[in-house]
Amino acid sequence: MKKPIPVGVSPRHTHLSKDDFHRLFGPDAVLSRVRDLTQGGQFASEQLVTLATPLSRIENVRVLGPFRSATQVELAKSEAVRLGLNPPVRDSGDHDGTPGLTIIGPAGRVEINQGVILAQRHVHMTPADAREYQVVDKEIVFMALSPKGTSPARSAPRTVIFGDVLIRVQESFQLDFHLDTDEANACGAVTGDPAVLFRLGSVPLENNRTYYPKKRLYTEHDVLKASREGSLILVEKGTILTPSAKDLGREKGVFEFKL
Ligand SMILES: [Zn+2]
User: For the chain, N or C: smaller number of CB within 10 Å?
Assistant: First the structure.
């Protein structure tokens, strides 16, 4: 089993464009850093705004820095419902067809006509982590969470397996599984809890199957034997497959690639 990935719970927040920031906080205001976030360059500012719709409002919503080219509001589903909005699940920055709302600051208000999203749950990692977990950028994986412990924030174990988790790989990233507060509350998870990454299809293989003896060259005969035994042939850099072994192995699903 690979090492677990720490959970990072993201409460509702907003990213502002520079223009919107000054409309909300005044021409001389400075976006001031209170705390660095785990991902390179991102920070929580001391500025708070209110989100408003005709139905309701949510106060004390943190502004994150640095500035973005377009203002974005990230909510948990239950918060969107409270505001009467139905935003889609989106990767950051993808605003086409998303709803807007009113943002209120101490110096003014801004109506945005799009930019409210439910953030797609995702794992940040470096290229080295991606090699370790054998995943690639933009791949969709499963993450399992089974928080246990005596902290008052948690109750009994309430295991949840999250699907549709987006892998995001960048050199500046730190290993982190980002969930919103609804997702975290569904299993009683708090920031720092360990989560386990599952690649699609990897569960039955890891549990029930063994590896075929390691060789440099595999023939059709090896593939047949592996298939009959229910074992897997590990294809690594330098492994040679005869053309018929390659065809049959694909058909029988006996290859595991580790390139
Ligand atoms: Zn994130």
Answer: N
